[in-house]
């Protein structure tokens, strides 16, 4: 149950928070910062969390349109030195384009109610329930579905890296946005879902 999972987190991890958020058995686990390259290492907090907690029958699945999901909080050397404004603005420009293309590709014109197949579903595992939010020195991304599958989490990390590539130090030009969109479309074609 939620209480035993929270207790496990508190007993086995340093600098991890757990609070009541989302669904019938709510728990939101927030892990300390780490470098993207170390995020999926064999003994990383996230890998241990998947191995020890998310494989148990104590975790209840939710619908992909629910207002819970996987968040990423991203900072770069530039955002920590200056601010995260460009990263949030450039990311949101890409997210809005992905949403527009996904909506246009559905018969109803609204990909929110499509089960699969659109760009946003391939990249994020769902229709996003948020966008990129600047918090001064970092950006919080509320885009991805929750998952009990470590391979899907690894996919989300790969999408994050592609989404933020080159997005922090300057405003994107239209050519930059078009180039990044082409890269995200190519990546979506490799989606595991």
Describe the structure.
- It is a single chain.
- The protein has 193 residues and is mainly alpha-helical.
- The chain has eight helices and five strands.
- The chain has helices at residues 2-12, 36-39, 45-54, 77-81, 85-104, 119-124, 150-164, 174-188; strands at 17-19, 28-30, 70-74, 132-134, 139-144.
- Strands 3-5-4 form a three-stranded antiparallel beta sheet.
- It starts with a helix and ends in a 5-residue tail after the last helix.
Assign the structural class, choosing from mainly alpha, mainly beta, alpha/beta, alpha+beta, or little secondary structure: mainly alpha
CA radius of gyration: 17 Å
Low-pLDDT regions: none
**In whole angstroms, how far apart are the ends?**
28 Å
Percent in helix: 40-55%
Name the average pLDDT.
85
Proportion of residues in extended strands: 5-15%
Q: Mind describing the biggest β-sheet?
A: 3 strands, antiparallel
- Name the overall outline: globular
Per DSSP E runs of 2 or more residues, the count of β-strands stands at 5
Strand order of the largest sheet: 3-5-4
Number of helices: 8
| Helix-strand sequence | HEEHHEHHHEEHH
């Amino acid at each position: 149950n939620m209480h035993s999972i929270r207790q496990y987190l508190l007993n086995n991890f340093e600098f991890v928070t757990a609070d009541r958020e989302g669904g019938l058995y709510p728990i939101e686990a927030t892990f300390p910062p780490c470098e993207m390259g170390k995020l999926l290492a064999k003994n990383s907090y996230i890998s241990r969390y998947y191995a020890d907690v998310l494989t148990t029958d104590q975790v209840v699945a939710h619908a992909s349109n629910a207002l819970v999901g996987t968040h990423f909080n991203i900072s770069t050397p530039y955002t920590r030195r200056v601010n995260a404004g460009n990263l949030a603005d450039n990311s949101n420009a890409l997210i809005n384009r992905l949403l527009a293309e996904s909506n246009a590709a559905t018969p109803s014109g609204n990909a929110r109610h499509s089960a699969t197949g659109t760009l946003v579903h391939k990249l994020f595992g769902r229709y996003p329930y948020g966008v990129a939010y600047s918090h001064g020195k970092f950006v919080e991304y509320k885009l991805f579905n929750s998952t009990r599958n470590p391979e899907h989490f690894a996919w989300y990390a790969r999408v994050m890296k592609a989404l933020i590539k080159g997005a922090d130090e300057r405003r994107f030009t239209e050519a930059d946005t078009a180039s990044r969109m082409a890269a995200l479309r190519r990546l979506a074609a490799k989606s595991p879902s």
